[in-house]
Amino acid sequence: MVGSWDGSQSDDSSHFERGVDHIYEAFICPLTKEVMHDPVTLENGRTFEREAIEKYFKQCSDSGKPPSCPLTSQTLSSTDVSPSIALRNTIQEWRSRNDAAKLDIARQALFIGNDENDVLQALMHVRQICRSIRSNRQGVRNFQLIRMIIDMLKSNSHKVRYKALQTLQVVVEGDEESKEILAEGDTVRTLVKFLSHEPSKGKEAAVSLLFELSKSETLCEKIGSVNGALILLVGLTSSNSVNVSIVEKADRTLENLERSEEIVKQMASYGRLQPLLGKILEGSLETKLSMATFLGDLALNNDMKVLVAQTVGSSLVDLMRSGDMPQREAALKALNNISSFDGSAKVLIDIGILPPLIKDLFYIGPNNLPIRLKEVSATILANIVNIGYDFDKATLVSENRVENLLYLISNTGPAIQCKLLEVLVGLTSCPKAVIHVVSAIKTSGAIISLVQFVEVRENNDLRLASIKLLHNLSPFMSEELAGALRATAGQLGSIVAIISEKTPISEEQAAAAGLLAELPERDLGLTRELLGVGAFEKIISKVNGIRQGEIKGMRFTMNFLEGLVRILSRITFAFNNEPRAVAFCREYNVASLFIHLLQSNGQDNIQMVSAMALENLSLESVNLSRTPDLPPPSYCGSIFSCMSKPPVVTGLCRIHQGICSLRETFCLVEGEAVEKLVGLLDHENDKVVEASLAALSSLLEDGLEVEKGVQILDEADGIRHILNVLTETRTERLTRRAVWVVERILRIEFIAIEVAKEPNVSAALVDAFQNGDFRTRQIAENALKHIDKIPNFSAILPNMA
Description:
Strand order of the largest sheet: 2-1-3
Keywords: Repeat, Transferase, Ubl conjugation pathway
Radius of gyration: 47 Å
Number of strands: 3
InterPro entries: ARM-like, ARM-type_fold, Armadillo, RING-Ubox_PUB, U-box_domain_protein, Ubox_domain, Znf_RING/FYVE/PHD
Pathway: Protein modification; protein ubiquitination
Protein name: RING-type E3 ubiquitin transferase
Distance between the termini: 137 Å
Structural class: mainly alpha
Largest sheet: 3 strands, antiparallel
Enzyme class: transferase
């Protein structure tokens, strides 16, 4: 009869009583109610299981009572017992007969397709027999029951499979020969399959059986060789299973399997790193070498890299310092593998990796590293100096180390050159270190050789590293870089080609654009070179593509666009000496593009550069605005012909008094840019405000009708914003510009009268008059005269005369 889910059942099945002797009452211990194994007799003739009666006597002693018979309560004079040899022999004979009969019946029942109750009963009897007398495992083997029990793992019944697993566990426990029988064929593979497909109880029984098998060293390799075994076991140890026993048994199984170094490596590849790290810490030199070599090629996530660095980082650095080249190679490759993440690199810095790393990189002499390993050293150093961790990188630029790096770059192959350039990229990203790098490059004249790498075609990583380095150097060496690029048109063309590549926006493109953007904007020779290689046409195409959503790049888009806009703006500085600049701006309607870019909210630098470019374009308008040809006067012969009115010309620009348009003459008024520029005067970035104010001031320049310019500003509500800029006194540069514009505005009498009533404006002008530079004080003085805060002595003195 089957009871609970796990297959428990009673022993009243008549089918199994045939050929089996019933239990005699004399065989039963009165205390345990079970058949005795070692019966002993007391002085009063009563018989008990030895272990049970000894436990009873101890309880009597512990409670301070005299020993007594548990059945009769008769006090005993002694706790001595006599073995009941005859009874024990009789019980053993009875048990042997019954066990043999039960095993024979079980052998007949254990077939797929038999009644489930009979199969479960048979499995129960096998377990009972093996638990009662361990020597009966020999009987199990003789009846080939192990193979028959294994066949029960193919049953469709979860109950049968579960009980078969439990039975096999009991049969093989502590019995090497039984384990060997079980491990034959595909049984281990079946057990592994149960780890993922069985319900919780079946899974627990399968992992328990695997744990028992793993105690045999010869079977560890067998378990480890089964596809999926290790990854499933590792997965069980890291799961959040409510069945703690499964997690514990899986963990203990893996601990047994750790005897095999190959299995340890496989475990590491599945995320169980501690065994491998333990062997690096405590293994023989040969084992350390093997494990470190494997670690160098192992795929690790960032958390694993930190764990490895914390656990064996010091040991790997020690191996790196050794005189044995294979050990140094294994250690370097392992350190390279874990140095690419900020967290693990920080750990390596703290344990002192830098001194031996730098020594290996620069040392030349006996037992120095071959160039292929110097490349690994350079890679590790590049990883470390390019992390976000703020350590003192200035220590890496002392003692002629930058000069040594530059020397190695000039005298090695592309692979190590790439890594050494990446080291310099990291150093030039640090404000404290970049000055030393710049100084060393200037002193050595290395800028020429560094620029040459931008022409590399066959090594993209090398070219990227060189572009990034030159970008970092450009704010500090713009003149030198411009000179180097002017010297060879091919290098400048290569950078432009990178920028114009038809791919999603890349880091290299953003760095290349940033590099050219930093070069001196007024370098006419460089601008002409850029015109010569068609750079501006390609750049404006990219800008339009990004604005229209045709070119995408996500991560680098904003930096790339900013660089492009800055490069494009340099053409507006070349109007005086380069006719092609005006022609280009007309053809591509550059002024319109910059007006649109003013509205790039959240991109301050783009707005600032666009306003600066519009200032340059607007200043050129006066030279481009054309006065129309007047029709010749007509001669009617009338005596009143001399009194006729001159012809009237309509449609002239209010500010330039000529024919203007945004495209042809870059006129801000015709392009409706004034309101957009006025809107930027409220910007929180002072540089954007200053550039916008400068562009607006181009409408008040000498040679133009200032009154008309002021009127245009007033119509755009610009005067109020300009006065606010003055009174806020944000920066000295902005104050100088604001004072200049306000003085021009105050030349209009009715405005001066109104402004004179504003104490804040007067105070700001007085402050500029007292504290500004010489030119600002002069302009502020004139402004104060306009509002009668300072007497206009130049008007009074002639009258006095």
